[in-house]
Amino acid sequence: MTELEASELMTIIQDQFIYNFRNVKGLNYLAVKNEIDNNFVFELGYKESEINKIELLKIKTFIYTELQNQIRILDLPSIRKELYKQEIKTLKINEEPSQSSFRYSCENVKDVRQRQSLRIYNNKDGFKLGTLGGILTINAKKNYFLITNHHVIAGKCSKLNDDILNAADEKIGNLYWSEFGGNYKYGGEYDIALARITNKKYNPKNLGFHYKKPIKTTFEINEVLTIGGKSGKKCGFLYSSKAIVKIDGNDWYKNQILLENLELTDGDSGSVITDKNKSVLGLYMGKNNKLKIANNLYNLFDNKIITTTQGKFKLELFH
Q1: Which end of the chain has the lower number of beta carbons within 10 A, N or C?
Q2: Phi, psi (rounded to 5 degrees) for 55
Q3: 256: exposed, middle or buried (Cβ count in 10 Å: 0-12, 13-18, 19+)
Q4: Fold agreement between 113-208 and 211-299
Q5: In which element (H, E) is residue 260 found?
Q6: Which helix (H) or strand (E) holds 211?
Q7: What angle (nearest 5°) sits at the alpha carbon of residue 276, between those of residues 273 and 282?
Q8: What per-residue confidence (pLDDT) applies to 182?
């Protein structure tokens, strides 16, 4: 099936999938994958040594039954519907995501001092450094907001207007808005926060930031890159353009981007993921085994940021 059709089917079933199976031990993700020659399939990721075999059978039956039902109502020729029904019977299984042996080489950021300015934290939430992913300019005025993860600057002890500091304990600005997780029953979609910048040093031009356009993540994209506040410039590959995935125990997220061979670590949370042409894809938030997880920023800007900031925005990055 096409990537668009697979993504639409995922959207239809994802809430019920999370609701039914969010507590199944050993279950990791359900993802749209490009199997071969742009034939898109669903891949179920789990750890065989942990998952209950009866639960696994229930999951496979749910996926098969729900997708079959939804294919029936798609506006497609009957021949294609029958073909898709057969494809769904061979659900792709991945017990442990493999890593490509090929490495996309990228030059690291040489200016360590510049990279250190990207390391940030909330002084009310302990010294837990994350990454300033980018800067939003609102309405073409000098209203600047840094963008990063909720868990970087808006943790349990935080509140709006908290001071946000860099690694040198210089104030950058104040916490402005955040969104984290979602309905426990149906999973979350974003781990994101904005802080209004008050430090003049963090004018995008002063930092050497440049405008980058958010684009829709599809499998036309292969290589990805990011600049983590801790790890510097890193490169990897797109694994899935749309996935339901578990992170940090039993927290489930939908509409996520999965990445492989991207060597990021603690302290890189909040890094913006781009394609090799520097167009914006996602916001790195964490990992599941060997796969890295990113919020889809194209969806976020369309659905959240414009409403939150009440104006047009421009995103600038240190890429």
Answers
A1: C
A2: -65, -40
A3: buried
A4: yes
A5: strand 251-260
A6: strand 210-211
A7: 20
A8: 67
Q: Per the confidence metrics, is the pTM higher than 0.85?
A: yes
In contact, 4 and 10? CB cutoff 8 Å: no
Distance between alpha carbon 235 and the CA centroid of its chain, in Å? 15
Pick the CATH number of 3-94 from 3.30.300, 2.60.40, 1.20.144, 1.10.3120: 3.30.300
Please report, for the chain, the start and end positions of each structural domain, with discontinuous segments joined by +: 3-94, 113-208, 211-299
The tokens for 241 are 């353009």
**Average pLDDT of the segment spanning 51-75:** 89
- Calpha distance 147→309 (Å, rounded): 12
Closest Cα to residue 31, out of 244, 263, 311?
Answer: 244
Determine the Cα–Cα distance for residues 28 and 8; give it in Å rounded to an integer. 21
| Tokens (6 digits) for 88 | 């769904």
Residue 202, Cα to own-chain centre: how many angstroms? 25
Provide the token pair at 259: 């990445």
What is the CATH number assigned to the segment(s) 113-208? Answer: 2.40.10
**Does 211-299 carry CATH code 2.40.10.10?**
yes
What are the tens digits of pLDDT across the range 141-155?
A: 678 999 999 999 998
- Angle CA 211–212–217, to nearest 5: 170
3-state secondary structure of 41: strand
Residues 238 and 257 sit within 8 Å (Cβ to Cβ): yes
Q: Rounded to an integer, what distance in angstroms lies between the CA atom of residue 30 and that of residue 256?
A: 10
